Target: Glycosyltransferase family 2 protein
Amino acid sequence: MNLKELLPTYNSLEKPTEFDYKFTIFTPVYNRADTIHRVFNSLERQTFKDFELLIINDGSKDNSHEVIQELISKSKLNIRYVNNETNRHKMACIVQGINLAKGEFFLPLDSDDECVENALEVFLKIYNNIPLEKQSYISGVTCLCVDQHGNLIDEKFKETPFYSSSFENRLNELSLEEKWGFVKTDILKGVYINPEVFSKGYIPEGIIWNLLSKHQFKTVFTNDIQRIYYLDTGNRISNQNHKNDAFGMAVFSLCILNWFYKDYFWKNPKVFLIRVYSLIRAAIFLDFKRQDYIKALDSKKIKLLVNLCWPFKKMFFKIIG
Model:
């Protein structure tokens, strides 16, 4: 397997898509029979109604399928439901959801969370207030979250609206904690994710957001609180395991190192040194050879650094953790 071929790519669509809704609310589900009602309840209270709810059940082992069917039977929402027999993990569901989306804006809402009742109305107002000359390179709008107790998940931005991107936030050491927002569906439809990465554990969604950063798209970040993020869920993605997440961390690290090293290393070397460490740590748990990683890297200096660290990777991991 050529690791470099696993990195996502982007090509803008030749023709804009004709959409049926303003928003597609996308909810992937895996073993969420006890929480999926939160999504339905919060969407049924929305003050803005021009949206569809797209649910993909990713091979759940519990009775999520039956619960979803029951909720749909009682709901007046515009709902499309896909019940995948096999669990392929979240990234595969995201790609599936993007391909199916009929809304202009693609808004993921996890199956154990909820949103405030005017969330869609506020999102649309923020977008419509973006100056027309900027809208072409704006990929979407992102807001803040609170936990189920009303505590702010992340610190507020010093200015709002704040125009930035996922990589710029990382480069400038801004908080990368949980936020929530939509992305233009036509932009996402131009993203290609190699299916070889599916079903290989957790693949960070950041490979998509940083790809958009690479192509100079900006996100509008605001201090509006739009989502209630429950912290007491057992199988949250934030509960990471280095071994189970190794493949995804390797792909994510290669993305950052190849896409941004040349232009941004000296602006914040720590960002790239952390990704070198993450790549080497991931290699402990994967079957690829050192040369596979070296071939996948563009920078000769990063290749040299990986070669130097490679013989000590297990000891390095034990020391740093």
Notes: The first strand starts at residue 9 and ends at 10. The chain has a mean pLDDT of 93. Residues 246-264 form the longest helix (19 residues). Residues 3-229 form a domain with the Spore Coat Polysaccharide Biosynthesis Protein SpsA; Chain A fold (CATH 3.90.550.10).
